[in-house]
Write a structure and sequence with these properties.
The protein has eleven helices and eight strands. It is globular, with a radius of gyration of 19 Å. It starts with a strand and ends with a helix. It is of the alpha/beta class. It binds erythose-4-phosphate. Erythose-4-phosphate binds next to helix 7. The site of erythose-4-phosphate has 11 residues, from helix 7.
């Protein structure tokens, strides 16, 4: 399973990249706004800056909602850097845009997926990735992880090459269950990735080993 970081924060992207396990980055307009990135020129430069840090796919989201504007925006984003994957919302014109961009060999990530039907139609249109939002489903009392399991089963049965990118990850258990249920990728905040590393028994065991070594070698 690939690990993407879900942020536009360059310091966090560098920190995750230095772990040596980072395969890519996802951004969205909310994450870009959170970093205070304003205006088209600054936004484009920020995507290039991210691509220059990480050797992997970087999702950059269109902000148009009609077919013509989405494909124009998508082609512009894809032209910025070879790592860019164009993120397209799950709407009718979005499906047409995914079909068009994939026919031009431009990789896409269909975002805001909340049902198996949406996943199937995005895969049928040729999306490189689909992003089911597990945390936002959990937030409204649906089981986000169950959606990952169902999509993984359908994609396996049908042989769809589209990769399942579990998004809206809120905790390390979402990452573990994504791996268990067959997601190809997770995109997560840095905090949930780092939380996978920690265990109190590891800390306790290491402290004991170092103390015993010090006793003998002092
Ligand atoms: C990533 O592709 C999504 O935009 C992101 O994971 C959404 O996460 P959120 O539900 O925490 O905003």
């Amino acid at each position: 399973m690939k690990f993407f970081i879900d942020t536009a924060n360059l310091a966090q992207i560098k920190e995750a990249n230095e772990l040596g396990i980072l395969d890519g980055v996802t951004t969205n307009p909310t994450l870009m706004a959170k970093e205070g990135i304003k205006g088209e020129k600054a936004v484009m430069q920020h995507y290039i800056d991210i691509c220059n840090i990480v050797d992997g796919d970087v999702s950059a989201e269109v902000i148009s909602t009609d077919f013509e504007s989405m494909i124009a925006e998508g082609e512009k984003l894809a032209g910025l850097h070879e790592n860019i994957v164009v993120k397209i919302p799950m709407i009718k014109d979005g499906i047409k845009a995914i079909k068009y961009l994939s026919s031009k060999n431009i990789r896409t990530n269909c975002t805001l997926i909340f049902s198996t039907g949406q996943a199937i139609i995005a895969a049928k249109a040729g999306a490189t990735y689909i992003s089911p939002f597990v945390g936002r489903l959990d937030d409204i009392s649906y089981d986000g992880m169950q959606l990952i399991a169902e999509i993984a089963q359908i994609f396996a049965v049908q042989g769809f090459p589209t990769q399942i990118l579990a998004a809206s990850i809120r905790n390390p258990v979402h990452i573990i269950k994504s791996a268990q249920y067959g997601a190809h990728v997770i995109t997560s905040p840095l905090s949930s990735i780092l939380a996978l590393i920690n265990h109190p028994l590891t800390d306790k065991g290491l402290a004991q080993f170092l103390a015993d070594h010090a006793k003998v070698n002092s």
